[in-house]
Design brief:
It is built from 17 helices and no strands. It is mostly helical. It has one domain: MFS general substrate transporter like domains (Growth Hormone, Chain: A, Up-down Bundle). Helix 4 runs antiparallel to helix 16 and helix 6 packs antiparallel against helix 7.
Length: about 475
Amino acid sequence: MKLNVKRTCLIGFAFFGILLLWQVYDSWCPTFLTDIFARNMYGMSSAALKESSPENILNVQWLVGIIMACDNLAALILLPIFGRLSDKTETPIGKRMPYILTGTFVAAVAFPFIPLFFHMNQVAGMVAVMAVVLLFMMMYRNPAVALMPDITPKPLRTKANGIINIMGYFGGAAATVLGIFLKLSDYINAADEARKLWIIEIPFCIASVLMVISALVLFFTIRENRLKEELKDELEEGERMAAVETPIEEDKPMSTANRNMLLAILAAEFLWFMADNAVGTYIGNYVIYFLKAASSNTSVLVIAGGVASVIGFATAGYIADKIGRKWTIVTGLLISFVGLLTAVFVLPTGNVVGANGEFSFPAVLYVSFIIKGYGMALVHNCSFPMVVELCSSKQIGKFTGYYYAASMSAQTITPVLLGLFFRLTMEWRALPVYASVLLALSCLVFATLVRNIKARKVENAKGLDALDAD
């Protein structure tokens, strides 16, 4: 039994499109919302608002959190629905591909309208388009993620998931590089009449084009139905070698031991996504409004964490082979905790370097994100395979829905909760404190409640054989 690296990379184009969109969405939209709410509430230009009392910006973060949470609430409902629907779908092009293609094309068409409505100061239009994009990305996301375990034997899924995530991070990196050259802070700091739409429109248009290309590559290279038939024997052997406490039987209820394992994994996942999404949602505003640095620093920060994540994804499978998935995740959570804890002590430098009075960026924050990026890669790489390990081949979409239900419920709650903490504390450092505490709790839950069950040893191919392209 050996992992087909080329085929796994091609499946990864689905995740490439997902992270590409989310990186643009998470990097730009919270700042769009902060700016548009603050200008409408206080009647100031954005440049004047930035120089006013910090309380003005912090007071609107709970509104930003509510909008971001509404999107995630829709995802919490829709992801399990599309997962179950795709499990039961049978078409000539497969059961996942119709959802992937439809979701991608509609989301790609709608995506560039978000910055357009923001530029026009149309709050309702902007929020409505955000909702459309999220709806069709939910149609795409669950089936796209379920495609890998559909055609990968269980013992090989951790390494396959590493490749999938690396492909996704290439998508995120493509979006992040745009933020270095098209600085959101240049747009935000300009007077209203001097704002140039193209600065914020180009990243969304490029993201849409690349999403469509990635979906087409996936469609023309991965034939779901044919591959499932060809790999039938390997998938059945993978079921027998699964890392589960009791065997999985088709059309039978889960055993108590397996159900308890699933609930413990999802509980810990909920907590670490609470932490991770808090950072992802607010880091752009944190850099612009607290550190008073150029928004391009956020992009460099994300790239630094992304490079560390790629290293983490590349090594996580080998670490899990040695110590098991459980202790790989615990190690990743501890590493991430240390990274975020260092960020608690970061303060604005006070050294003016930009033409708009922007401060230099504290270099220690790069170190924090590199540490966190590597640690969370270990976590994400092993957690999804642990969840789908506990189901039969007929339930992969359903269990992918469980995985995303936990993550999206966390991402529904955390923007609002942290936004309220900002209002109560009037302190931007609530962000790293909040995330650090949640990671510590997640590590405690996972270490104490999840059992470390290693799959039976797989004799992986080595050398040139490992690159089989059949």
